[in-house]
Amino acid sequence: MTLTAGVVAVQGDVEEHAVAIERAANDRGLAVEVVEIRESGLVPDCDLLALPGGESTTISRLLHSEGIAPEIRDHVDADKPLFATCAGLIVASSDVGDDRVEELELVDVSVQRNAFGRQKDSFEAPLPVDGLDEPFPAVFIRAPVIDEVGDAEVLATWDGRPVAVRDGPVVATSFHPELTADSRVHGLAFFENDDATLPALEDSG
Ligand code: GLN
Question: What is the pLDDT of residues 85-124, one digit of tens each?
């Protein structure tokens, strides 16, 4: 049984996510085929989906113009796992407060773009994450601040602010786990979320 993993590839860290997904799957003895999503019609065949960082205004525009946005919503409605990072979190959130981003409303948080660690654009920090034994080397790059958390669970905070959240089958981080050689957060998001199902695995009994 081979899982199909979609990485939304309209913009952002595509290859890095593909590598992290393969590593997390292989660690669990699972085979996975990665598909890059640049057009509609591919998401429905995906068992799991990553929505990478990049520039949220561009990603949002392309997701809607290419007809991928409704397919991502259907994916989550079917309780299949989605992992959104940084700009992906911004696009997946319920409120950005920026007209250029049309929220997918898949994670019940409100965010503010480019507001985390204003004094330095990017930084790395050892981050304790719920579900991981050891801190995760979290890389923040012009990261969004999560201002308000609605019906979602906070998995990690940095400097008193939420930086990783889970809302049902969706896990979202304001940092970039794909930029390290550590695939534990991908593992959590895709394979250890009790609210998400991997149909391909269930079918195989
Ligand atoms: N600053 C970007 C935005 O607001 C997000 C940065 C990132 O994904 N690394 O869209």
Answer: 999 999 999 999 999 999 999 999 999 999 887 767 899 9
Q: Estimate the crossing angle of helix 184-191 against helix 14-27, to 10 degrees.
A: 70
What is the extent of the structural domain holding 94? 2-204
Q: Which 3-state string (H, E, C) describes 142-174?
A: CCCEEEEECCCEEEEEECCEEEEEEECCEEEEC
Count of domains observed in the chain: 1
Mutate to test the pocket of ligand 1, among 103, 140, 142, 174 (most ligand atoms within 8 A of CB): 142
Query: Which amino acids are annotated catalytic?
Result: 86, 176, 178
CATH number at residue 124: 3.40.50.880
Which ligand 1 atom is nearest residue 141's CA?
A: 9
Pocket around ligand 1: residues whose beta carbon is below 6 Å from it?
Answer: 53-56, 86-87, 90, 113-114, 141-142
- 200 pLDDT more than 80: no
Which segments of 13-68 does DSSP mark as H helices, in order?
14-27, 56-65
What pLDDT, in 10s, does the model give residues 40-57?
999 999 999 999 999 999
Atom of ligand 1 nearest to the CA of 12: 8
